[in-house]
Amino acid sequence: MRFPRSNELDLLRLILAASVVFQHAHLAGVKTYLPWVEKIPAVPLFILISGLLVTESYLNSPSLLTYFQKRIRRIVPAYVVVVLLGGISLWILGVILSLQGSGSVLQLACYYFYNLIFLNFVHPCVFSASGFESIKHCAVNGSLWTIKFELLFYLILPIVLVFAQRLPRILCLAASLILLSCLIFVSSIYLTIFICFIAGVLLSVAKECWLPKLIKLEVPSIIRVVLVFMVAISAGALLPLPLAAIALLIVSFIGTQNPLDDLNFLRYGDLSYGIYLVHYPLIQVFRLLGLPSITPGILLAPFVTVLSGFIAALLYRHVEVKYLLNGSHYKPSV
Length: 334
Hints:
This protein is mainly α.
């Protein structure tokens, strides 16, 4: 059994990407006045969805090589482009503004080297960090830290599935729910995203236990969309992460009366990954140019989100889609 095309995971991922933008808007000293958006635990939920979809990709790949090809083609091309363009853009801006330590070709080369091998934490800046209050104010792209973990999870997935597929499906479902409930007691973000990924994998393996019942519940498409928005903005502020994760998966997979009426954001291309990649350098550029001081706080985060979406669409059409294999979830046929 495969996940149906009729679902709201792509809408949910867009909401999560927007939430990350709002959270990082604080780097520019901006108060967004939308705390319920900022409090969404976007990264753990992203990773949970990744566990679901990547397991689906693996189970429907003809070989291990094809699986790894799909994952590399999905993640790496856009990542490389954003690292290259983000680094040179901030480097040039540093030279123009005469920031401390700017203009060093060695700094730029080190940034490229470590970020292109996914060791972003070793050299996150293209100029000296000593003139900044925090390393996050100096970093070209503080969002990239999750990508190395995503790739690591891709590597361990086949090993996890060797054991998971030997278990009864109902046991996999129970294990996933237990893991999610344990998140209440976890404070480490690294352990949190690991648990979310494994829970997503187990939920995918056990989908025969829960998915058919949801698909049979037919509601108007607009109702499903509204439910996703309502549960998403409740995540973090009202719902703890375990409940939010379960509730979001439930409302995302509820069947609709006419799938042709579904919102289906993916028809316009996959934008959430691009938004996640490009928004941080944009915020850094705006901050260094002093734009937040002349822009109403309530407008800056939405503006960065929309601009990131526009750039993400270009990134998808001119970079990502060219490397995706036929049949990829992110390369829809409609």
